[in-house]
Amino acid sequence: MSGNTPSVTPEVMLAFYRRLYPFKSIFSWLNHEHTPTRLFTHREFAFTLPGDVYLRYNSFNNADELKKQVCNLNPTRFEIGPVYSARPKDKKTVRPAAFSPQLRELVFDIDMTDYDPVRTCCSGADICRLCWKFIAAAVHVLDKSIRDQFGYQRLLWVYSGRRGIHLWISDKEAMELTDEQRKALVGWMTVIQGGKEMHKKVNVRQGTKPLPPSIQSSMRFLGEVFTNLTLGTQKCFQKREGWEELLRLLPSGATTSALRTQWDEGPQRTSAEKWNTDLGERYAALGPPEHDIMKAAIEDIILQYTYPRLDAEVSKHRNHLLKAPFCVHPKTGRVCVPVDPSSIDSFDPEKVPKVMDLLDELDMVPPTAAGETGEHHSDWERTSLKPYVDILDKHVLSLMEDVRQRKKQEPNMNW
Q: Name one GO molecular function term (predicted).
């Protein structure tokens, strides 16, 4: 996804914040209740202003205060941090020991650039529908794994506006995780590790032992992804560079040598033929223990090319800041919208609303009864942004229901 996008000017951003940004929905999502609680009043907001000016430790009493300050500062973007033991705006007046992060959504960040070694259609900041399928596969795997393995249910997926996706988990138990617990959790879920110099990036078992059950449960789905995406649309083993990388991941020996000779002599063979026919036939002919060694290598290769690639540092610390949903990406002009994981396969990042288009939509709509001088709290309802805000509002209803249920069980609950 590249191309010439008109620059997002300060005037455009101010109109977006005044008329379209869903401050009330964001407030309800962070607060979990209608009336302000510490979940919002002690929450850090950080603003990025033109010229790379960065303002941290802002906090607000309600949605109106947040909107007023955002419209006053007109940031290029703003980020959301943890709930602190004191109001972040009072940080300079409280003792350092009395100011620490207490609660924070468990967050994950998946960036398309981490898939550069396994995609052929794009690289760097570019993204298209073909390589977006890597992100879609990651959403399928992570959404199911997190629900099944950890029992979390309040997951909000948000498109980053350009080449990635964020996950915010708002279950009470997730909010209360310590940094040590977050580090352990993300370590458990990290499968792809190692820098550019390391060819084999999957080390999740000892020798030829079976994969951990948490990973094995995803293998059938990932096998289909590998067939359709790695072998199909991406054609990862079509060119010499691609098949040499594959050979480096296979156990060294006669099989690997024979495959290299075959592919050097017949480079026109497709990725699917190299994998299914050439490698497949030699794999089937192996006896123990070579068969078991090759089986483990093949599973690890499928994982290396398809398993979610997490930016672990984002998830480990409660004080990490993450871009707020519905911000506008300055390079693309696209809004960072929530995504329904059940329809992630049909999600097209190129069709996400751009801020200029949304403002054009508003100009086509007759003025409200309040007149053009009235407050614009829900003008998004009259634009193509509405279905995305609806996703967030539906998520908020679940959070509020959780709070109501806990209050029934714990009448004196004060989170």
A: metal ion binding
What is the domain partition of the chain in residue ranges?
10-187+310-409, 197-306
pTM: 0.94
Are 289 and 331 within 8 A, CB to CB? no
Amino acid in the structure at residue 231 = L
As annotated, the active-site residues are: 44, 109, 111
Q: pLDDT tens string for the chain (415 positions)? A: 444 455 789 999 999 999 999 999 999 999 999 999 999 999 999 999 998 899 999 999 999 999 999 999 999 999 999 999 999 999 999 999 999 999 999 999 999 999 999 999 999 888 999 999 999 999 999 999 999 999 999 999 999 999 999 999 999 999 999 999 999 999 999 999 987 778 999 999 998 999 999 999 999 999 999 999 999 999 999 999 999 999 999 998 899 999 999 999 999 999 999 999 999 999 999 999 999 999 999 999 999 999 999 999 999 999 999 999 999 999 999 999 999 999 999 999 999 999 999 999 999 887 654 445 445 567 999 999 999 999 999 999 999 999 999 999 886 666 5
Length of the chain: 415
| Topology classification of domain 10-187+310-409 | DNA primase, PRIM domain (3.90.920)
User: Which has the closest alpha carbon to 127: 108, 144, 110?
Assistant: 110
